[in-house]
Every structure is written in structure tokens, then in C-alpha cells.
Design the sequence.
């Protein structure tokens, strides 16, 4: 009886692990975790019992402090860093580093690796940034909300691809590739917008030191250095220099990613020859029936593992390693730290209302995402195809392309990030976040409905 109960426990444990693995591998799971983080943040920020504690948590000071007796040593790094700024300026560096790795991969070997492949998603991304910015300006030109024009120009790839994956049997694979490449190009555009328009006054000396270190990293790459420590330590120093130089520190992640080597340490021929030798040595090693793996076996297995690792480029290894942590840890923490808007009155939901304090930030963001994004993506794609600059994605029609373009209006992560950079007034930031959430939700619903209406489900034989 005890044997059967143990079997049932092991079986349930295995099924739980299997379900967990399937959930983590599902393309929509990251978006779901983000939604849960947003909901939790909104609840904690507005429930009377938790609102004060939530704000105190975000404003906790974080720093490494060294003090000596008699006041001889008094050193703190970094200064003025709260938990929220640690998330936005520290953890989000890893997010931008991963984006940088993805952009580099797409440019070198992916959908942006040639002019023919890149022209349509790049032009579509450009249109999807210009039109939302113009719509935002039409509502806010000359007001205190004018600096927020960059908010509706971004696309959240996790949500967009997650929703598209639900309709895998209704949307041509070519449009999924198009949306992915568009989102990568859009991320690159958002990074340039942040770098050029949302930085502070630049400390040229610190920036010059950072550039010298980056030049050193570049030469490390060129001489074939593949050990990660030689890139990790300078990366931290560059982040600190960016943090104090006035250029937003998260951009250091993108810059460093561009210098991470993609070429593996060992060639395919060397790997095959060396692995064959290690396999033969492993098989010849002495072994009793109950003695595998013994010390000699473990030695060969470690060498085989190291050989396999070094036969994959560092850029690919880091992208594979960081992706789940960014999706299920860093982005939910960012949402938790930034989506908790304290709603003191229903005025915050009146996003179509113009006020002297906040301008028309709500209307600009909402219509920029819901109308500007799909209109810009669609018009730029239409012009590119009609002028024969680019080719229409295989098997796709204009109606379905517009439906997929609507998903580009899901701004969320990057839009909230730009919102926190664009304004100093906490009320305008909060109104911008509400408009981002409402505009992103409306874009997701519109895109979902249009995909359902414009498609026919494929029948499986």
C-alpha cells in the first residue's frame, strides 16, 4: 500500500514538473505573468492596508556603504538609489542587454541580416513610431505633456507575440516573422529615442572614459577573447559610468551586447574530432557494473561539457541563459515596481479629459497606441510594397497584416519605461501609465477581434 502511495506522489510530482515546463515554454506565459504583476501592483498601490507599505518598499535606499572608525572612511555607491530606481536603472540593464543580443543576432544572421529581409519590418517600425508621435503631438504640442511623445512609439514584443501565438492556426507564419522582426527594429528605435531625447546633461569626462573601455572591449572581441569575465567586469564599470554621466544607464546594456562575440571558440571540425577522442577515451576507461561515473569518467564528462559549451558563441549562450530570467523575473519586477498607480479619484480614468496640469497626455498616449501604431505600420508597409521596395509576407493579405499591426499598439513595458523618463511630475507619470494600460488593452482586444474576423482556422488532417 505504501509502495502505491509513493508511486502516486512521484507521478504527481513528475506531472507538476511537466506542466511547469510546458507553461514556461509557452510563448504567451510571459505576458500572463506580466499581467499578474500589473494586477498585484495596482491592488497593493490602492488598498488602504497596503498602499503606504507599497510606496515605502519602492523608496527603500539601496547602496554599498563603507565606513571606518573615526570617520576616516566614508564611501557610498551608488548614491540616491532607491529600490524603484535600482529596478529601472539596474535590473532593466539586463533587459536591454538581452534586447541588444537579439538585435545583433537579427542583424548578423536573422530577419535584418540583408536589405531585402530588413526593409519591410524596418520601414513598418519607422512608420509605427512616427505616426503615434505625430498623433501625440497633435494633442499635446505646446503643453507640459509635450515631452511624452516617445511613450506611444514602443511595442511590447512579449505581449504581441504571446497573443499572436494563441492564433497559431489562423495567422500565416510569415506574419509572425514580420511582427517579430518589426518588434526588434522597434526596440532599436526606442533605444535611440531614449538615448537622444531622454538623457540628462552629459558629463563628457565620464562618457569619454566609458568610450575608452568600450574600445578596449571591442579589441578583446577582435583578438578572439571568449572568456565571459573579460566582458562582465568592464560591463559593470561602463554601467556605473553611464549612470553618473547623464546618459541613461540601461543603454550600457545595449552597447555592451554589441561587443559580445558570436563566434564560438572551437570550430565544427575541431569539436567533432575532439568529441570523438573523448568519447573513445570514456568508453575505454575502466568501469565496474555499479561504478559509473567514477572519477575518471567524470573527468571526461566535464571535458565534453566544456567542449560543447565553448563550441557555441558567447552571445547565443547568454541569450539562452538570460531569456527566462528576463521574461519571468526582471520584467514582472519592473511591472510590479512601476505599474502600481495610486488612483486617488476616478479622474485618472478620464483619459480624454484635458487639464492644465497634465495636458492631454491620456488622449495622446491612448490614440497614439490604438490608432497611430497600426496606422503607421500599415501605411509604411503598403507604401513599401506598392513602390516595390519590399515584398508582401508570403501567404498574407492586407486585412490580416492590419490586424497584426494592431498588436503593435501593445506598448506596455517600453512605454512605461519611457513614461518614467519623460516627466518629473508624478501626477503626469501616473496618468500616462493609466493611458498606456488602457491603450495597450484596447489594442490587444482590437487585434484579437480582427484576427478572428479576417482569418479561417486551418483544418488539421
Sequence:
Amino acid at each position: 500500500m505504501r509502495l502505491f502511495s509513493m508511486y502516486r506522489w512521484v507521478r504527481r510530482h513528475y506531472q507538476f514538473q511537466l506542466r511547469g515546463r510546458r507553461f514556461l515554454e509557452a510563448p504567451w506565459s510571459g505576458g500572463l505573468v506580466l499581467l499578474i504583476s500589473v494586477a498585484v501592483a495596482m491592488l497593493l498601490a490602492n488598498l488602504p492596508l497596503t498602499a503606504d507599505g507599497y510606496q515605502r518598499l519602492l523608496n527603500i535606499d539601496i547602496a554599498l556603504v563603507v565606513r571606518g572608525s573615526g570617520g576616516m572612511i566614508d564611501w557610498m555607491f551608488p548614491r540616491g538609489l532607491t529600490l524603484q530606481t535600482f529596478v529601472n536603472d539596474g535590473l532593466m540593464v539586463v533587459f536591454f542587454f538581452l534586447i541588444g543580443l537579439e538585435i545583433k543576432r537579427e542583424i548578423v544572421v536573422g530577419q535584418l541580416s540583408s536589405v531585402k529581409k530588413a526593409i519591410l519590418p524596418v520601414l513598418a517600425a519607422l512608420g509605427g513610431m512616427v505616426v503615434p508621435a505625430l498623433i501625440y503631438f497633435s494633442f499635446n504640442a505646446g503643453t507640459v505633456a509635450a515631452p511624452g511623445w516617445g511613450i506611444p512609439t514602443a511595442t511590447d514584443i512579449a505581449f504581441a507575440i504571446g497573443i499572436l501565438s494563441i492564433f497559431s492556426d489562423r495567422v500565416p507564419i510569415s506574419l509572425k516573422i514580420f511582427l517579430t522582426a518589426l518588434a526588434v527594429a522597434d526596440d532599436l528605435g526606442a533605444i535611440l529615442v531614449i538615448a537622444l531625447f531622454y538623457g540628462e546633461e552629459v558629463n563628457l569626462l565620464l562618457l569619454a572614459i566609458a568610450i575608452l573601455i568600450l574600445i578596449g572591449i571591442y579589441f578583446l572581441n577582435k583578438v578572439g577573447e571568449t572568456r565571459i569575465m573579460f566582458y562582465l567586469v568592464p560591463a559593470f564599470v561602463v554601467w556605473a559610468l553611464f549612470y553618473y554621466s547623464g546618459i541613461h544607464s540601461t543603454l550600457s546594456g545595449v552597447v555592451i551586447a554589441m561587443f559580445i562575440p558570436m563566434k564560438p571558440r572551437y570550430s565544427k571540425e575541431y569539436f567533432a574530432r575532439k568529441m570523438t577522442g573523448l568519447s573513445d577515451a570514456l568508453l575505454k576507461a575502466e568501469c565496474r557494473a555499479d561504478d559509473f561515473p567514477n572519477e575518471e569518467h567524470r573527468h571526461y564528462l566535464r571535458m565534453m561539457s566544456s567542449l560543447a559549451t565553448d563550441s557555441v558563441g558567447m552571445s547565443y549562450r547568454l541569450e539562452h541563459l538570460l531569456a527566462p530570467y528576463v521574461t519571468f523575473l526582471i520584467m514582472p519586477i519592473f511591472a510590479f515596481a512601476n505599474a502600481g498607480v495610486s488612483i486617488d479619484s476616478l479622474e485618472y480614468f478620464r483619459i480624454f479629459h484635458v487639464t492644465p496640469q497634465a495636458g492631454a497626455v491620456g488622449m495622446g498616449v491612448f490614440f497614439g497606441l490604438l490608432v497611430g501604431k497600426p496606422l503607421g505600420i500599415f501605411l509604411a508597409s503598403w507604401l513599401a510594397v506598392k513602390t516595390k521596395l519590399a515584398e508582401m509576407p508570403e501567404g498574407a493579405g492586407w486585412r490580416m497584416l492590419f490586424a497584426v499591426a494592431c498588436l503593435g499598439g501593445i506598448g506596455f513595458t517600453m512605454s512605461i519605461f519611457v513614461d518614467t523618463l519623460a516627466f518629473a511630475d508624478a501626477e503626469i507619470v501616473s496618468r500616462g501609465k493609466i493611458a498606456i494600460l488602457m491603450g495597450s488593452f484596447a489594442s490587444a482586444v482590437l487585434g484579437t477581434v480582427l484576427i478572428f474576423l479576417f482569418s479561417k482556422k486551418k483544418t488539421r488532417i
